[in-house]
Write a structure and sequence with these properties.
The protein is mainly alpha-helical and about 260 residues long. It has one domain (about 15-250). The protein has 12 helices and 2 strands; from the N terminus they run αααββααααααααα. It has helices spanning about 5-15, 15-30, 40-60, 90-95, 100-130, 135-145, 145-150, 155-160, 165-175, 185-200, 205-220, 225-250; strands at about 65-70, 75. A two-stranded antiparallel ribbon has the order 1-2. Helix 5 (about 100-130) runs parallel beside helix 9 (about 165-175) and helix 9 packs parallel to helix 11 (about 205-220). The protein is globular, with a radius of gyration of 20 Å. The protein starts with a helix and ends in a 6-residue tail after the last helix.
């Protein structure tokens, strides 16, 4: 079967692959030249990288780390919320790749995801009011490489969690606009995108997103105010084990 150039272009545009490739190029250009040292500074070297090296070594040996012996007199690994031990992306990446390479690659990927998810949300909203795709692409770029996200490159859990905020907003819009049709798919997507914010190691994003989604739905359609509550509850089984261990450990902290 022969495919013309136009057919290939249309295929890429249909699934927004052209935008995804553009964002990959932008991230490469932003970090160019790509070096072999770990991205970050104090927090990366003192906290997040050691956790992930230990995590990777355990996964490669066929074990899941339950105890982290290199901090204080030892801590339950899942209780260290910023370790991101149950985040699916981390489970795959640190199982099969060098932890130092995986650490940097995770940062690159989540910069791309922040832009792409920001674009998907902006494109959906803009199309409803007749604004062109180019502006959605620009919006994704401005969000994904914004000062807030770039300045937190040293704080990997936050940088890994934030990209899912616009994805949650997209799913919430789809639920509202398609009420009664395929809601289960969008509802499940909303719950997973919320849960991933917790699993990535920054539960504050999970809570902040819920509050923002609640205010958003009350403003746009107050009769559906229960949707964020229900999605929040559905996301909880996804993070239950992680949250349970985090709460147990945080209860021993002297910090309020």
């Amino acid at each position: 079967m022969n495919f013309s150039f136009i057919t290939v272009v249309n295929f890429f545009r249909k699934f927004n692959l052209d935008v995804l490739i553009l964002y990959i190029i932008l991230v490469i250009a932003f970090f160019f030249p790509i070096k072999d040292h770990v991205i970050g500074a104090a927090d990366s070297y003192n906290q997040f990288l050691p956790l992930r090296v230990f995590y990777s070594q355990a996964l490669k040996s066929g074990d899941f780390p339950l105890w982290y012996p290199y901090q204080a007199l030892g801590l339950p690994f899942l209780g260290i919320v910023q370790g991101g031990g149950l985040y699916p992306f981390n489970l795959i990446l640190y199982k099969f790749f060098d932890p130092y390479w995986a650490y940097n690659f995770s940062i690159y990927v989540h910069f791309v995801l922040a832009q792409f998810f920001g674009f998907l949300y902006a494109d959906y909203v803009y199309r409803k009011v007749g604004i062109g795709r180019v502006f959605a692409i620009i919006s994704g770029f401005l969000f994904g490489l914004s000062g807030f996200i770039v300045s937190h490159v040293d704080f990997v859990p936050l940088q890994n969690s934030i990209p899912y905020l616009p994805l949650s907003l997209l799913f919430l819009n789809l639920i509202v606009d398609n009420w009664g049709r395929r809601n289960f798919v969008w509802f499940l997507g909303l719950s997973i995108s919320l849960g991933y914010q917790f699993l990535a190691g920054y539960p504050q994003a999970w809570l902040y997103s819920f509050i923002f989604l609640l205010l958003f739905i009350i403003y746009n359609n107050y009769r559906l105010f229960w949707v964020p509550f229900l999605s929040f509850l559905v996301s909880f089984p996804i993070v239950f084990l992680f949250a349970y261990e985090v709460l147990r450990l945080s209860g021993l902290s002297i910090r309020n």
